[in-house]
Amino acid sequence: MIFDTLIIVDISTNVNMRMECCEPLFGGILEEEEAARTAAMFAALADPVRLRIVSMVAAAPDGTACGCELEDPLGLAQPTVSHHLRILREAGLVVGERRGRWVHYRVVPERLDEIRNALSPPVLDPV
Amino acid sequence: MIFDTLIIVDISTNVNMRMECCEPLFGGILEEEEAARTAAMFAALADPVRLRIVSMVAAAPDGTACGCELEDPLGLAQPTVSHHLRILREAGLVVGERRGRWVHYRVVPERLDEIRNALSPPVLDPV
DNA sequence: CCTTCGTATCGATGATCTTCGATACATTGA
DNA sequence: TCAATGTATCGAAGATCATCGATACGAAGG
């Protein structure tokens, strides 16, 4: 095994997601199921709004931002922002923590590392 | 600038694609246009069939495979495979070279490196 | 209890995408 | 020139997705 399993607890759903993702592209022919898992991860990042959300959360003062801070800069309605945050959450790319009325989101860099591993060049076998 | 510009010549369209892609997610808030470019790259990888195609081409004996070799293992019709190859081509993830009747595709690892760079953790400023 | 405010869900709409049959194009060999 | 084969394009059908108004949920403060 190349990387460990990342366990993420989604506070809004209280679901422990044990996600194994992103078998390396250069580690042999991908099985259908593995390909679907990895494709789902890329799909979460395959939207300009979601990429901007990730960059905005990462660039926020404490590395956290609530949804209400994103609506204006993105120019999108609240349900739309909530929709995108949900997809990022379910992909394990961000986690949300409720503080009073607000839910503070932060990026999960380990998840991005997993995706990077999937794109890593092949490991050369020593002779 | 972190990475150079990758120039890819698509033999089937004879179009020189000068693509700059994938500004780092942790390099500040992404502009709308940059986010759209990066999202398009991820969208090309956000499909199980295309991920399997990339892994199959990479795992092929010479690192190249023609479309006809992919239809059976994928269980898809020829137009469908051609469609996915087109998307991968336009994203610069593979290039095709015609040899006689066949078009041999190969993966462009530099493109995958660019995507990996976009997901790289932030560079820590020295104090 | 009631209001306020941030968030999540529902339902609908319009756009985009995957898939494939039909068809055209390209190259090879007879 | 004609048939065979690999590839690309077209058009249609069904599925998926982004967006947002309406609405419900949740927490804080009178």
Q: What order do the SSEs of chain A take from the amino end to the carboxyl end, as H and E?
A: EEHHEHHEEH
What portion of residues of chain A is helical? 40-55%
Using the CA coordinates, give the radius of gyration of chain A: 16 Å
Work out the count of structural domains of chain A: 1
What spatial form of chain A do the alpha-carbon principal axes imply? elongated
Derived from helix and strand composition plus strand pairing, the structural class of chain A reads alpha+beta
Mean pLDDT of chain A: 87
The number of distinct β-strands of chain A equals 5
Strand order of the largest sheet of chain A: 3-5-4
CATH class assignment of chain A: Mainly Alpha
Descriptive keywords:
homodimer; 127 residues; alpha+beta; Arc Repressor Mutant, subunit A; 3-stranded antiparallel sheet; two-stranded antiparallel ribbon; disordered N terminus; DNA-binding
Task: Describe what you observe in this structure.
Two copies of one chain form a homodimer. Chain A is α+β, with helices and mostly antiparallel strands and 127 residues long. Chain A has one domain (6-118): Orthogonal Bundle (Arc Repressor Mutant, subunit A), CATH 1.10.10. Helix content of chain A is 44%, strand content 20%. Chain A has five helices and five strands, in the order ββααβααββα. Chain A has a three-stranded antiparallel β-sheet. In chain A, strands 1-2 form a two-stranded antiparallel sheet. In chain A, a hairpin with a 4-residue loop joins β1 (6-10) and β2 (15-19). The longest helix of chain A has 14 residues, at 32-45. The radius of gyration of chain A is 16 Å and the shape is elongated. Chain A starts with 5 loop residues before the first strand and ends in a 9-residue tail after the last helix. At the A-B interface, α1, α2 and α5 of A face α1, α2 and α5 of B. The structure holds a DNA duplex (30 and 30 nucleotides).
